[in-house]
Amino acid sequence: MKWVRLFLPVLLISLAVVYNGAHAKNARVDQSAPDFSLMDSHGKKHSLSDFKGKWVVLEWVNFGCPFVRKHYDSKNMQSLQKAYTGKDVVWLSICSSAPGKQGYYEGEELTSQIKEEGSYATAYLIDGEGTVGKMYEARTTPHMYIVNPEGVLVYAGGIDNIASSNKDDIAKANNYVKEALDSGLAGKEVAVKASKSYGCSVKYK
Fold first, then answer.
1. Do 91 and 57 meet the contact criterion of CB atoms below 8 Å apart?
2. Could you read off the pLDDT of 33-70 as tens digits, one per residue?
């Protein structure tokens, strides 16, 4: 039985790696949204699980990105934030830009930037290590996700169907986020559950 004593530790380690790999879950539409915890711009921790029972929007943001500027300079993003947080929807803006890269802010600079943008988001979350962004496979800014009150991811993709940085395109675009939230809040099935996101690449570490 000497070989058992020799190889058992190796076998247990291998099984542990396989087990952990099988449970390292990334976000998938129509599946439970992976939980996460991040600090906000005021130093308060927020977890997705804190908002179980509510609709939640996740908005990947980088204020230096021209595609994000399209939706903020036009006030399109802030209008959506204000309208839906007014309907008890939780809106989490998440920045996965690494320190030193475009879009990363901290301290007073971050507070000032959020105020300047006129954001109505519930919280602005800092993901400087990129852990949550990679878990959700956020590729662009903006990249939008919607989680229903049961904690299921019901939408992932672009904010709308016109991939441009031109503000004039907003009025003629199909806003997938608005359509999904309106359907969900009315108790209807979300028609478009996934689309290709567009924008700047997320400035990961």
1. yes
2. 999 999 999 999 999 999 999 999 999 999 999 999 99
Gyration radius from the chain CA atoms: 19
Question: Is the separation of the CB atoms in 125 and 45 below 8 Å?
Answer: no
Q: 93 forms bridges with which residues in the sheet?
A: 59, 124
User: Residue 128 CB: number of other CB atoms within 10 A?
Assistant: 19
Which tokens in the block code for residue 56?
A: 């939640």
Block residue for tokens 């008890």: 88
How far is Cα 48 from Cα 153, in angstroms, rounded to an integer? 12
How far apart are the C-alpha atoms of 140 and 159, rounded to whole Å? 11
CA proximity to 132, closest of 197, 35, 56: 35
Nearest to 184 by CA among 158, 146, 144, 142: 146
In whole angstroms, give the CA distance from residue 134 to residue 122. Answer: 22
Q: Rounded mean pLDDT of 113-119? A: 98
Residue 184 to residue 175: CA distance in whole angstroms: 14
> Other CB atoms closer than 10 Å to residue 177's CB: what's the count?
21
Least confident of 13-17, 72-76, 146-150, 182-186: 13-17
Mean pLDDT to the nearest integer, 57-84? 98
* 125 CB neighbour count, 10 Å cutoff: 24
pTM above 0.85, yes or no: yes
For residues 118 and 93, give the distance between their C-alpha atoms in angstroms, rounded to a whole number. Answer: 13
Pairing state of beta strands 45-47 and 56-60?
unpaired
